[in-house]
Amino acid sequence: MNSKPRTVIPIGPYHPLQEEAEFFKLYVEGEKVVDMDIELGYNHRGIEKLSESLHWDQSAFLVERICGICSTSHPFAYVNAVEDLAGIEISLRAKYIRSVIGELERLHSHLLWLGLAGHFIGYNTVWMWSWKYRESVNDMFEFITGNRQHYAMMKIGGVRRDIEKKDIPQIEKMCDDLLPVVDMFKGAVMDDPVIHARTKGVGILPREVAIDYCVVGPTARASGVDIDVRRDDPQNSAYNLVDWNVIVLQNGDVFDKAAIRILEMYESIKIIRGCLECLKKEPEGNFDLNVKEIPEGEGIGHYEAPRGEVYHYVRSDGTNRPVRHKIRAPSYVNVPSNQYAVKGYTISDAALVLAAVDPCYCCTERVAVIDKEKNRKIMNGFDLIKLSQQKTEELKKKL
Amino acid sequence: MEIIDEIKNKFGSKIKKFEEKNPRRFYIDVLPTDIVEIAKVLFDDFSLRFIIATGIDRRDGLEILYHFSEDKTGKIVSVRVLITNKEKPEIDTISKVIKGAEWIEREMWELLGINFKGHPNLKHLLLRDDWPEKNYPLRQGQGEGRK
Fold it and tell me: What pLDDT is attached to residue A118?
């Protein structure tokens, strides 16, 4: 062990808003992070076990409540798993509607992340603006499904509601209005020298490490791992029927992780537009197969959530409830990679690196720096954000 | 050559049962003693991505499914092992070969009571540290699920 004095900085563990409560223990020498320990389970709700006591249709509502932000990704993967089990192919119209909902969710999730990342580095204008434009996506959800969150659109054998022809122009208008906004954010992030100085070369996750930790989603794609479930295994969705690209960048630092999310928003808009064009040609009303019986067997479903691959495995014995329902959320594999990514950087960078994986920023609000000798609180979450923002201010003056 | 044919050629008699559920989903049954070798070949030589493992409590033992994904073609290969000794279930860890398997092995250890031999950090992940011993929430007959 090193003889230098080490300080433990706990980040977390609890905040009622975050989707996964986690506890990061940073071991620091001076300002430098030398090691990190991750503890979780503070918010373990036993959803896998609960699902065994629910009807097949009820489980779709249960898994929707795993996460408040990517609340359509879990049902998407779950219905895919059950449809894989039963060998169901849903109607074309339902496939398009599923993809529209999935991409709208990606838009609002990436905008949410962008705002918080902006807040962390002291760009509160980015935060306010990004969340302002996120509202238009949430309004669109309310318009299509009746809910701003927890849309309850996924159903075994199709979707629960139709997107009617008369509603399509309004969704298209939202896409048209959002495009210049994404352009603006792209300019704000890609051309700003301070953001470059703060995020380039910080929290690098090399390709080999990314593969070893089995990371998924934007975290993997920023490190040059070319995976995207939407393209690789579209299952019962329309991603193979419209034109779009998978964004892959090579550096694996915080900047690339931000850039990938911004560039993905363009692709999401492209997918929504493509799906809406096709929806206009499909006959209305044919969006649900009314599946009643689930046969015996096992099935696997996965879907690319905004944070990465969501994976569901279900096994049935022919009754109306699953025997086993395994769920793997993307953060489960992405968060351990932080262990590698934060090492060697300063505490003010750590907040940014941990947030770059897009786990739950709310943890960082609960940070407390504790003097190990006296066991006394010397710093809280606000101080940490302040520290991070101060660094940006100093950089601004230098430039 | 298709990935699945390569796997079949490579392991030969080690594959006890093979099932092709549909063109993108494959299930392979192997013995628990072979799992580290097979995981190593799938992960290192065939460059498959380890997704997750599923532990299941069955009447005749504890089953573990290791899910691997070939991302180029979107195929998922699930390797199934069955540990018949329910009193003292044990299997070798694959986390030395695949770093990303560390957490799920800890999870299966605490929720199903499977001992992963050689795991570097086998401690509680989801449950609290003073969770009572021999109480495994995902075993049948526990809590609100199936009895």
Answer: 83
Whether the CB of A303 is below 8 Å from some CB of chain B: the reply is no
Q: Which residue range is the domain that position B11 belongs to?
A: 3-86
Which CATH homologous superfamily contains domain A47-201+230-242+272-329?
Cytochrome-c3 Hydrogenase, chain B (1.10.645.10)
What lies within 8 Å, CB to CB, of A161 at 6+ separation is A97, A144, A145, A146, A153, A287
Greatest Cα pair distance, chain A, in angstroms, is 72
- CB contact, 8 Å: B141 with chain A? no
For residue A364, name the pLDDT band (cuts at 50, 70, 90). very low
For chain B, the domain total comes to: 1
Domain with CATH 1.10.645.10 in chain A: 47-201+230-242+272-329
Confidence band for A367, pLDDT divided at 50, 70 and 90 = very low
Region A300-318: mean pLDDT is 92
Instruction: Provide ipTM, 2 decimals.
Output: 0.92
Which chain A residue has its CA at the smallest distance from B137's CA?
Answer: A49
Ranges of H-type helices in chain B: 3-11, 35-40, 102-112
Task: Map tokens 């100085």 to a residue.
Answer: A197
Entry pTM = 0.89
What pLDDT sits at residue A372?
42
Q: In this structure, what CATH number is given to the domain that contains residue B40?
A: 3.30.460.80
- Give the closest of B50, B56, B137 to A324, CB-based: B56
Interface touch A212/B102, C-beta < 8 Å:
no
What is the tens place of the pLDDT at every residue in A223-239? 999 999 999 998 899 99
pLDDT at B103 over 70: yes
pLDDT of residue A85: 93
